Predict the 3D structure of the following.
Amino acid sequence: MKKSKYNVAVIGVGAVGIEMLRVLKQRNFPIGSLRVFARSARDIEVDGQKYSVDAIFPEGFEGIDIALFAGTEGEKGAAVTYAPEAIKRGAIVIDNGADFRMDPKVPLVVPEVNAKDVKKHRGIIANPNCSTIQLVVALWPIYRKVGIKRVIITTL
């Protein structure tokens, strides 16, 4: 899916969704069009830029290349409810929530550690939680150099 520009959807406008919008802008991600979805339509402002948020609906994923899910998790959450709809319409889903993390058919990817696993996707890619991502990025070079037998971590 190498293109010059991508049609992107960000699903969820809580803290994570807003940060996704920031990073897309900061990194000058090559966006053709951007759609922002949440449970209800409204306008938001992030760092002085206004975004029109649409109420999420299956047909909203038409023409979307990449759908970044940052919304509510669980059996009635955004990714569980709408990821299949996005995939059916041709999008690659990247889920920031826990809904697909333990699914053996969904690659769990930290780009600095196992970027090649992205190619194993069947329409959806998951990422670990924030503390795990930071941990594996730090541990990966140690593991490669000398190995690691065990790590005991507590997060609160």
In short: The beta strands are 6-11, 31-38, 42-46, 49-55, 66-69, 92-95, 124-126. Residues 92 and 123 are 5 Å apart (CA to CA). Helices lie at 15-26, 78-88, 111-114, 130-146. The first helix runs from residue 15 to 26.
